[in-house]
Write the structure tokens for this entry.
Amino acid sequence: VFMSHVAVWNVRRLLGVWPAKTLGRTVSSRLIRSSSFSRGMVSIGNHILRDEEVKGAVFDVDGTLLDTMPLFLPSWVVTGALPEFQLDCPEDDFYACAGKPLSDIVRFLHVKQKGVQPTDEYIASFLKAKLVAHEKIQAERPHPPPIDCVVKLARDFQSRGVPIAIATSGLKELVVPHLKHAGVLDLVSPEHMVFASDVKQGKPHPEIYLEAARRIGVEPQYCRAFEDGESGLQSAWAAGMHVIDVTYMEGYPAPEALLKAKDAQVKERSWLQ
């Protein structure tokens, strides 16, 4: 088992490039075993921080701190099926778009299926209808649970006094209640929460992670970022942070569609130079 092998490797040896095979996936990444965390993690890119070098931690929310992805998919399907939109949202495309601003997801699906860019009015109407659909569906379902293996890392940072921020493409009116219900709202001060609406350019542009670092008063190169989606990984990497892909962690809830999307994204990862 991959994780048990990581546990016995020497930390210095893990600072080189290693092929990793975990959860049935193969990636070309740098692997580390954090000296204070009891499990291995997959790092993206060459910038690696030892635990004692980390001065700030930045977490994505959807699919990272919280298992929200299965909860969000139905509202995309329901909204897209409305006659005024006629837009399919296959599960594979949904997970492939993880981390992107909602408006960019609408654009992606529209261009892929219709061959043209949607109007701003179309996007606004779609997202308004999606929010209504999501609230109706959520009223009938429980709030998303925390992803325990990731929350454990955040709690460790909190106990050591390392400042924590979130950098999310989610809507504030949904993210905050979800964090509260999951019992993790205390991890992040309100002023350290950065939403897509707080920046001009969303993921994969680095602005949201740069803003998160600014708010906690830590230089990006001394921050460790935790992400699940490809656009978020790229965003944090472009910001100059040490980036962890949480989907490879032991105990991470990874549906088949996510594994499929991740495999395709790793193979096409041209931005990682």
